[in-house]
Amino acid sequence: MVKHQPLQVYEKQVFLSLVTGIYGCRWKRYQRSQDESSKWECAWFIILGSSFLLLLFWAYFWLVAQNDFNDFNWSLYNHSGEWRDETIPILTSTTVGLSYITFLLILALFHISLGQQLNLYWVHKIGIVATLLTTVSGFVSVDDIWGDEWEIILVSLQFTAPFLHIGGLVTVTAVSWLVAGYVVRKERSNFQVMVLAIYILVLLALCMAPLTFTCPCIMDRHVLKPPPAIIGRRGAPMLAPENTVMSFTRALQHGAGSLEADVTISVDGVPFLIRDHTLRRTTDISKVFPSREHEDASFFNWTEIHSLNAGHWFLESDPYWTVNTLSAKDRSKIGNQTICSLVEMLRLAARANSSVLLNIRKPAPEHPRFRSWFMDTLWTLQKAGISQKKVTWAPDTDRGRVRGLLQTTNEKLSVEEIRHRGITSLTLHYRKISYEDIQVYLANNVSLTVYPVNEPWLYSILWCSGVPSVSSDAPQVLRKVPYPVWLMSHSAYNFIWISSDLVSVAVVMGIFFFQKWKISGMQNYNPEQIVLSAVARRTSRDVNIMKEKLIFSELNNGLGSTEELSLYPENGRVTYSHGGLSC
């Protein structure tokens, strides 16, 4: 009797070879395995997934923090004393790291879906650890230098939450294919039950997440108020050096209705405009007065201050990445800018019939104008010929002497304290104020200005919230936002929310039923019904025959000398002959 073992026919699996080769350096068929992955490799998969989530959060943070990139570099400058644009290396490393980790995660998911054993190559393990450590060190550094900026995550969710909800549903629905394939196996384990329970909880939490959303732009269109007035914060510092005449002129040309400036008093009593405590960053003082570059700007006289160039630094450092977009004429004009005095800015605003917001830095006690700074500033206002009703003064000190001028504060105060102090307006950072706070202030007729607002998404949130004015480094950008980026009625959003949840749940249930049906069919399948005729059906170019075996056994005497085995198929079969007999 002759027993035949079917030919083992293997097709070329180029895609599988690429997946296992890139992920685990297993390019050959014999290197691959469909056995269960070891606990060590499962741990590496968890580390890979955790690294992806951490990097995704990190990338999202920097995406929304673009609104404050200049403030980040300014914070670094105050810590180190050197101006460097650190956002470029951060964005580059984040993009590279996220792309690398995402690619490895996709390969790992392909392994799971194809039933292949996870076996991460050691080079990738080093890469994952290096990426993870770099990201963690970035978190620690940002928390130390720029810790308040984490709050922008919560602010941005007012704008992005509905879209993140849809994206999360799509992701969790897609992952159900892998989860279902794992939990519907014939063998049962406590870990499978735990995986299923976690998945169901995540899906339910995601479906109910919109109940926690606070999105100002989910509102009826007829309730929408007029757009917030735009204040040029230090002019238009993306188009010209901050706190210069050219910067304020560009702000007015691009639709700013008001101007905001930082005021410092010189040693001879001339108010001038500068943000920093020193002249190092925004002037060429290292060339003109190299021995005094670390000296406080207020201890220079106006003649010395006015002799410094305040434009070359802008062209060299390109703080907003906008220099290349400027014309040659504008760059030439920027190169000749000097520090602007308060009277120059006020006269410019008066000619344009614009209001101004002044952030005045009081001189130090040892400064010669410590006792007269207030009168110096007030005399400058009178000299400029601007109406006092057009001037808002901060901080809210010397209230007894400030008559006819509007006063504002950068402190977040209760309505009762605002009335007690006699303040008419607040100027608050967007991180300090919530949607509920805005509604309380507006209900009590408190004028509110929010800063810094440089991105359309943040401008849209504040517009929908009813904020009357915003202070911006980018008036030229906000002017091009004629309507909130998105606006949706409550009924429309509820329909989208409920519909997407129902579709997601239905698809997940369908996937689980299909996986269960497929596993049941495989368990009931009879292998003896398989007829392998691949050699007869396919050409040699399509099939790679890796192995051919025939197992023979004879009940009597076995094979004799006249027995002949032919390995050449005749009409698609392998023949065996014994004497004159042929099988």
How does this structure look, described?
- This protein is an alpha/beta fold and 583 residues long.
- It folds into two domains: 14-218 and 492-521, no CATH class; 229-479, Phosphatidylinositol (PI) phosphodiesterase (TIM Barrel).
- The chain is built from 20 helices and 16 strands.
- The protein has helices spanning 14-24, 39-64, 69-80, 87-113, 122-145, 152-183, 190-208, 245-253, 285-288, 302-306, 312-317, 328-334, 342-351, 373-384, 415-421, 435-443, 456-465, 475-478, 490-523, 534-537, and strands spanning 2-3, 8-10, 229-233, 258-265, 271-273, 355-360, 391-394, 406-409, 425-429, 447-451, 469-472, 544-547, 551-552, 563-570, 573-578, 581-582.
- The strands form four sheets. An eight-stranded parallel β-barrel has the order 3-4-6-7-8-9-10-11, surrounded by four helices. A three-stranded antiparallel beta sheet has the order 14-15-16, with no helix packed on it. A two-stranded antiparallel ribbon has the order 1-13.
